[in-house]
Structure prediction request, 349 residues.
Amino acid sequence: MNEIFEKISSYGHEQVVYCNDKNTGLKAIIAIHNTILGPSLGGCRMYPYQSDSAALEDVLRLSKGMTYKASISNLNLGGGKAVIIGDPKKVKTSELLKSFGRFVDTLNGRYITAEDVGMTVEDMEHIRSQTKHVTGITQSLGGSGDPSIFTALGVFIGMKAALKKKYQTESFDNLKVGIQGFGKVGYYLSKHLFEAGAKIYGFDVDQERLSIVCKEFGVTPIPNGDLMNLDLDIFSPCALGGIINPQTIQSLKCQIIAGAANNQLLDEKRESKTINDRNILYVPDYVINAGGLMNVANELTGYDSSKATKQVEGIYDTLLEIFNLSEHQNLSTIEAANLIAEKRIQDSK
Ligand code: NAD
Prediction:
C-alpha cells in the first residue's frame, strides 16, 4: 500500500489536501480528520518543518486531537488542522496567506481555519479576505478576538476540578504551581492564579516574557530543568508538547499535571501508565485547553462572550466526569476522556 495512505488510515482521516502555490511559495497541508459531528475546525500552524513528512505527521496528530477536543467539549464540530511549511518570521507574506485562504475556500466549509502557533489575528484577516471559513478574527470585525484568554480561564477552572478531586478543596491559597511557558496562555493563567493566592514558580526561554510575570504576578523564576523536580502541587506545561516523557517523568514531584500545551504526553499509553503508578493526577490536555476552541466556535453562530464563558465553565463538570470514570473503570484519565469523546461520535452516527 502507498505509505502516505497507510499513515492517513492509521490516524483514521477522511481527507488530506496538499496545497502548492509556486507564485507565493505556499506549501501547506490541510488535514480533515472527522466530520461526523460537524465541519472540521482547527488552527493553522506555520512552522519551519525539517521535512514534508514531519509536517504531515504534525498535521495528522493535531487534527485528530481536534476531533476529540470538539467532541468532549459538546461542540457540533469535527477535527481539522492545517500547517504551512516555512519560518513565519522569514517567508510569511499577505500574498501567501491569501493563497492559503483560497485553498481553504475550495473545501466549501468542510474545514474552518483559525489561529495557531506562528499565526496572528491579523494574519487571519488576510485569509478572511479570500474565504469566509475562518474564525478567530478581531472583535472589531465581529470576531471573538484572542482565544488565549478563554484557554487560560479553562485551564484555571480545570485546575479547580483537579484540586477538588485530589485535595477535596478548590482553594489555591498558598498552593505551589509551576508553569512552563509564559506566553499568551501562561500570562493570563498566572493572573488568575496570582489573584487566587497561589505561589507561582516558572520558566520561559524568553527572558522578557519571564520578567513580565515576575514583576506583575510575583512569579519566582526557576531554571527549566529544576522546575520539573520541584515539590509542586500543580505542574502546568504551557509551552511545548511531549514534555512528559521517559526522561522527565521520574523526576516529577508534583501531585497534579494541568496545563495548556497540546500533546503533553510523548507516548499517551506509556506515559499515562507511569503517571498513574506514581499517583499523579493527569488532567487530559485536550479537555482542559478547549476554552479557546469553545470561544472561536461561537463565531459560527454569532459571537456571544457570555455564552462562551459558560461553556468554558463546563470544563469543570466534564473533568469530574472523566476523573470518576477513570477511578471506577480503572482507566487512566486520558483513556477515560477518549472513551467519552469516542462515544459521543459513535452515538451521533
Ligand atoms: P505562545 O507561543 O504565546 O507561548 C509559548 C511560550 O512558551 C513562549 O513564551 C515561549 O517563549 C515559551 N517557551 C518555548 N519553549 C520553551 C521551553 N523549552 N521552556 C519554557 N518556555 C518555553 O503560545 P500560547 O498561545 O501561550 O500556547 C501555549 C501552549 O498551549 C501551546 O502548546 C499551544 O499549542 C497550547 N494551546 C494554546 C491555545 C491558545 O488559545 N493559545 C489553545 C490550546 C492549546
Q: What stands out?
A: The pocket of nicotinamide-adenine-dinucleotide is lined by residues 117, 147-148, 151, 180-186, 203-206, 209, 224, 238-240, 260-262, 289, 292 (CB under 6 Å).
